[in-house]
Amino acid sequence: MDRLILFRHGKALSESESGQDFDRRLAGRGVTDSAEMAARLADLGFRPDLVLVSPAVRTRETWAAAEPAFPGAEVRFDQRLYHADTALVLRMATEAGESGGTVMIVGHNPGLQDLTVKLLAEGGAPAGLVSRAQQRFPPAAAAAFLMGGARPVSDGLFLPERRG
User: How distant, in Å, are the alpha carbons of 111, 115, 116 from that of 135?
Assistant: First the structure.
């Protein structure tokens, strides 16, 4: 894998009709923020070759909002991403990206935030950026990393625009 993009699902409703966390849908803002983040990433040249998506409703809806910005990306839904910890997310991304290219994970916190902080720290990112990621990795946030060298290098931490 040449590059890894971690993309947290958009803002979700607090409850689902079924009462199950897995079935929580995106709020209207979640759909908008997800589409805007995807467009921003694409405009900056961050386009995935392969996207691994948690099958939870909110991550599927995040991908549906983001997909138009990434035409031609291969998509795989994987149950293991629901509640995946840092080690599992990284292992899945590494295995999926064995042939190179850019892998995007559309998933959940705390796994994505914890992995973002870990890769920033391992890559020697400035302390302020590591601290920022520790404090805030909100819905529809994304982080991108170059993964080809001995240690990951941050391409950027992207937070959704704040709305009043």
Answer: 14, 13, 12
Beta pairing partners, 158: 142
Ramachandran class of 140: left when φ > 0, alpha when ψ lies in -120 to 50, beta otherwise: left
Classify residue 17 by burial, with Cβ atoms within 10 Å: 0-12, 13-18, 19+: exposed
The CATH number of 3-158, from 3.20.20.80, 3.10.25.10, 3.40.50.1240, 3.40.640.10, is: 3.40.50.1240
Pairing relationship of beta strands 142-146 and 3-8 according to DSSP bridges: antiparallel
164 residues of the chain, pLDDT tens digit each: 999 999 999 999 999 999 999 999 999 999 999 999 999 999 999 999 999 999 999 999 999 999 999 999 999 999 999 999 999 999 999 999 988 899 999 999 999 999 999 999 998 899 999 999 999 999 999 999 998 766 778 888 888 876 55
